[in-house]
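Trying the structure run again after the queue cleared.
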Amino acid sequence: MASGKTITVEQIGSPIRRPADQEATLVGLGLNKCGRKRTLPDTPQTRGMIAKVQHLVRVVEDKS
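Done. C-alpha cells:
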C-alpha cells in the first residue's frame, strides 16, 4: 500500500452482545461509541481489524 494513504472508519453498530474480541478490536481501531469516526493508515493490519468487525463499521476511502 502507498505510504500516506489513509482510510476513515465510522462505527455504525454496537458491540453489546458481541464477543469480547470484537469489542477489543473496535477499541484498537480507536472506536468505542456509535457515530465515532477515525482516520487510520491504510495498512494490511488495519484492513484485517476492519474485516473482523465489518458488520459494525463503515469504511470511507480518503483521497490522500
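The longest strand covers residues 6-11. Worth checking whether this holds up in the mutant runs.
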